[in-house]
Amino acid sequence: MRRALSVVLATTAATCLVGAVLAPGAAGFAAADRSSPGTAVDLRPGDRHQTVEGFGFSSAFQRATLLHQISEPQRSEALDLLLGRDGAAPDILRIGIGGQSHDTYDVMLSIQPEDPGGPDAEPQYQWDGWDNGSVWFAQEAEARGVERFYGNAWTAPAYMKTNGSAVRGGALCGLAGATCASGDWTKAYANYLVAWADFYAQEGIDIESIAFTNEPDWTASYESMLFTPAQAAEFTGIVGPVAKRAGYGVVCCDSFGWEQGKPYLEALRADRRAWRYLDTYSAHSYASPSATPADTNKPVWMSEWASSASAAGWNENWDGGLGVSTDGIVMAEHMHDSLAQAEVTAYLWWLGVSQGASASLIQADVAGDTYRVSSRYYVFSAFSRFIDPGAVRFGVEHETDGLKVSAYRNPDGSRVVQLLNLDPAPVSTDIDLLSPVTTYLTDNDHDLEQVDTIATRSRGATGLELPARSLVTLVTGR
Length: 478
What we know:
The chain is α/β, with parallel strands linked by helices. It has helices at 64-68, 74-83, 134-143, 186-202, 229-246, 262-270, 272-277, 328-340, 375-384; strands spanning 42-52, 54-58, 92-97, 148-153, 207-211, 249-255, 280-284, 300-304, 346-351, 353-354, 362-365, 370-373, 391-397, 403-409, 415-421, 427-431, 437-442, 449-451, 455-458, 461-466, 470-476.
């Protein structure tokens, strides 16, 4: 396991105390809702932006079964790290809804693998209480404090689609422009999705919402299904009332790129029925990065991103110096940009755990009966562990080249400031915080470790010495 793994759960590191206890209402700033004159990093708590719903990742394609195969105590150690409140502390778990007729590793078995006899036939659902390992993983997550679960389908079963296959695209039979000899499967698919969520309720897991498509604009060799923006809006209007009656929300549309997703958002808004039933808008960050806001007041999720690790192999580095896209510092910048520029309300990494050359947070080594932890895990934890659901991002002003800063106020009044120094040189600056500050450092030599040499009281504010190429997390009021 990685050299600093024990740091994740350690509580013995020093807390850096700067300044004095503030008067009631000062809330940790040099003055209530005002900056201290002359600070280089100027917090603007009155400049409120989005409310953060949380952070999460997916357990799709049987990845959770990898941890299940590892023996104790390593299994519980890995689960605590990945799901625990003192670990990565995710808020949201994205569960794959299977569409395949078999259950070999890296596919997801459907709850109705075979055609029941047409779209109007009595459903023949099959429930095994395991669901590709996701039921067990969701139960482990819930036991460790994860409260939000939603289902995401990559495809409908093959017999519901125009191409007769669970893979390589194809459209849902019955949508505009998608006619099939077998008939209109749109209502059957809506009922199928709700049945899947109902099965989870039997296992003690409350599914909050359902996403009926994943990357509807990308034909993949794995489980996939295509929707045009108009078709996505059409089906939202079909599945919406069915899901609502059953107590579930609707998430759409998980385009494979942030900008590519915006035509889907426009189509949903243009369709009054679809807009009525849409609860959350979602898109991925592959074809284009999540760096601009989506034009909606509904919740906006960056629901998947992870750089490919195939060329570099399993990479645990924070900053390897070679520009490898799976370095932790790359993820840190993506998380910052998604929150501070795209103003997402939730950020979901692709996989929490996988095997081999993966960009997951943790690698499961089944053959070695162990696991490994990447720097990406510590980056995710820096945001998810300290920025609580319901936190409000507020404005920050500064003019330091190479420095990216975002700030958040949690529901309990505590503040979190993330300072990402992308410059190859250290940065000396100050910030208008006065209350006791706990400082965490993530870089090549520290894995989200508490340190006492970065933040010091300086001229009625907090002086900061930010190491080169580092993420510094400041927490006040906890």
